[in-house]
Write a structure and sequence with these properties.
globular; Amino acid/polyamine transporter I; mainly alpha; 2 domains; about 5% strand; about 425 residues
Length: about 425
Amino acid sequence: MDNIAYSHSSDATDRSTPTHRKASGVSSTASQNKNPHRRISTGSVLNNDRASIVLPTDKTTLKRHLNLFSGVCFIVGIIIGSGIFVSPKGVLRRTESVGLCLIIWVGCGVVSLLGALCYAEIGTVIPKSGAELAYMKEGIGSVHPITGDVLAFVFNWANTFVLKPSSLAVLVLTFSQYFLSGIMDAGIVRLGQGHTEHLQNGFSGTTRKPLAVALGTCLSDTFLKIKTLLMSCLIAFYSGLWAYDGWNSLNSVTEELKNPKRNLWLAIVLAVPSVTMLYLLTNISYFTVLSKAELLSSSAVAVSWGEVVLGPAVRVLPILIGISALGSANGSLFTAARYCMVGARYGYLPEVFACIQRSRLTPLPGIVLQGTLAIIFCIPSNIDQLIDFFSFVAWTFYGLTFLATLFCKFTKPKADRVINVRQSRKRMRT
């Protein structure tokens, strides 16, 4: 890990200058008296000491390089990764009804949009990278600091070692199902920050292509044999919500978003409803072409659909779907590394994960950690179990973030809110 810069200072009063370090290619920054630095102070979880990550402001801090278009592509590219090609079978298996299945898909879209609006509101109140990590620590922490600190610590470890690696594993396994194992002869993710942005913009466009051709009409027997068991519907929601996961991805890179007060909520409002409409039309197309038995027995729903509709041209479809899953994995790894970086800033992870690679301006240690853990999660290779496990744990923390949004309404009433969910609801009623 050459060209990684960081320094560490610890003092109860936080008045000392940073410690000088230089060993095995890891260089520390100069003293604060000689070179100005951006100091990011964090509280230690285990004691009352204070740690700080000192980074040169002109070389190793993250740059605001994501504009509105990049933000929309970022969200769309991560959401439409593998879910629409994997989840339809899981939702239909648990509901046993085409009509109820479509209702659940729309319901998942509405829930995701409401959640995204809450994230947009708290994201403008607490405009920091790390999303849930920062919101729990500063939102819930504004009411009870110890509780906020503990919840942020638990989330950071669960997200680092369970949520993000399992999400990456599902995307990689989906890629392997649709793409021939011998085709990929290069790395998955470019570590260059500018390259990652261009890749994500391109992936989001490629993602919409297999969806654009998957539209149809003429449904029959829509509401036959509706399974009304509440538990089955809840589990079906897990599968559906997995397909929408990623609606909060832009909050994790707020520090790299240009004009976040405007672009954060606007990107969310543009991206999530568009994805909901694409998902609904795609599912209608699936059910128009395939019977329930054919859909449930298919290991690759989109390919089975393509064999009927596209004929010989179906050979191109797995490549497009594989690129879609790969693009979502690229964006997911992009955000996962930022979670590690912010967690290290707060002192929840070892300090090395707060390091930024000098030349490419990326959190290289976090990328290596998340990629390694994702490979380990691929070993069981059971996508359905990974999805159910991921959705339950993820939405538990999403709920805590919604709670933090409510707390901020009372503890930060005068904060500059570009979007206010409660006021928007009142306007809709009037």
